[in-house]
Amino acid sequence: MSGSLDGVYEELISRAKEISLIYSCLSVLDWDQKTYMPPNGAEQRSGQVSLLAGMGHRKFTDPQIGELLDALVSGKYAQDDYSDEATNIRELKRQYDKAKKVPNSLVIEISKVTTLADSVWVEAREKSDFASFQPWLEKVIDLKHQYAECVGYPKEPYDALLDDYEPGATVEAIGKVLGSFRKDLVAFVEKILGSGKHPDISIVSRDYPVEKQEIFGKMAAAAIGFDFNSGRLDVTTHPFCTGLGPGDTRITTRYNPKHFNDAFFGILHESGHGIYDQGLDRNHWGTPRGESISLGIHESQSRMWENLVGRSRSFWIYFHPIAQRIFTEALQDVSLDDFYFAVNAVEPSFIRVEADEVTYNLHILVRFEIEHAFFKGDLKVADIPSTWNERYKHYLGITPANDAQGCLQDVHWSNGYIGYFPTYALGNLYAAQFFAKARKDISDLEDQFSLGQFGDLREWLRKNIHAHGQKYRAGKLVEVVTGKPLSHIPLMEYLRAKFGSLYNAG
Amino acid sequence: MSGSLDGVYEELISRAKEISLIYSCLSVLDWDQKTYMPPNGAEQRSGQVSLLAGMGHRKFTDPQIGELLDALVSGKYAQDDYSDEATNIRELKRQYDKAKKVPNSLVIEISKVTTLADSVWVEAREKSDFASFQPWLEKVIDLKHQYAECVGYPKEPYDALLDDYEPGATVEAIGKVLGSFRKDLVAFVEKILGSGKHPDISIVSRDYPVEKQEIFGKMAAAAIGFDFNSGRLDVTTHPFCTGLGPGDTRITTRYNPKHFNDAFFGILHESGHGIYDQGLDRNHWGTPRGESISLGIHESQSRMWENLVGRSRSFWIYFHPIAQRIFTEALQDVSLDDFYFAVNAVEPSFIRVEADEVTYNLHILVRFEIEHAFFKGDLKVADIPSTWNERYKHYLGITPANDAQGCLQDVHWSNGYIGYFPTYALGNLYAAQFFAKARKDISDLEDQFSLGQFGDLREWLRKNIHAHGQKYRAGKLVEVVTGKPLSHIPLMEYLRAKFGSLYNAG
Question: Which of A36, A48, A246 shows the shortest C-beta gap to B44?
Answer without folding.
Answer: A246
